């Protein structure tokens, strides 16, 4: 029973170390970005949407960090030792960045269409005024705006998490840099680390 408790404490310690060493400077910051972005109004957003968009985007980003760590064993095998899906997993950060840019473009395009709808309805107020006073039930393209907004932060977080997780797994598995730069060559662990595995 004591051994199980010790193992649990060790796993929690590894989890905390992972956050501190690899995520605090990138993924955790990225997960927290929606909060200051919303409070400083750096992205034009309907006031009625700003609150829940901030909560949802931060929540999804933190859940993504926790999920990635929970499946680290399977990812480690596929990233470094299995030829199957290795290329796809390696390209995930780049794909996430492209999707993030796409969501940024999609959000602003949809927001412009939404504001144009107000003009078509005969509303002559400025964009800032419309964004500030529009009722949630009357916002044109409300759902697409929500999806694009969440996508901006979720895809950015995905890129951060995948890059940070790869570095973490490489360190935990004690893999040589040279071996990683030689495609097709069997991965070798550093001397004295034959039994190392991500906890």
Secondary structure category: mainly alpha
Q: If you average the pLDDT, what whole number results?
A: 78
Instruction: Give the strand tally.
Output: 0
* Cα gyration radius (Å): 22 Å
Number of helices: 9
> Quick one: biggest sheet?
none
CA-CA gap between termini: 19 Å
The arrangement of helices and strands along the chain is: HHHHHHHHH
The fraction of residues assigned to DSSP E strands is under 5%
Poorly predicted runs of 5 or more residues: 189-199
Number of domains: 1
* Principal-axis shape: elongated
Q: Helix share of residues?
A: over 70%
Describe the structure.
By secondary structure, the protein is mainly alpha-helical. Helix content is 73%, strand content 0%. Helix 6 packs antiparallel against helix 8. The C terminus is likely disordered.
Produce a short descriptive summary.
By secondary structure, this protein is mainly alpha-helical.
Give me some keywords for this one.
single chain; 199 residues; mainly alpha; 73% helix
Chain-wise SSE layout:
Elements: H1 2-23, H2 27-32, H3 34-39, H4 47-70, H5 72-81, H6 86-120, H7 127-133, H8 142-172, H9 177-180
Helix pairs in contact: 4-8, 5-6, 5-8, 6-8
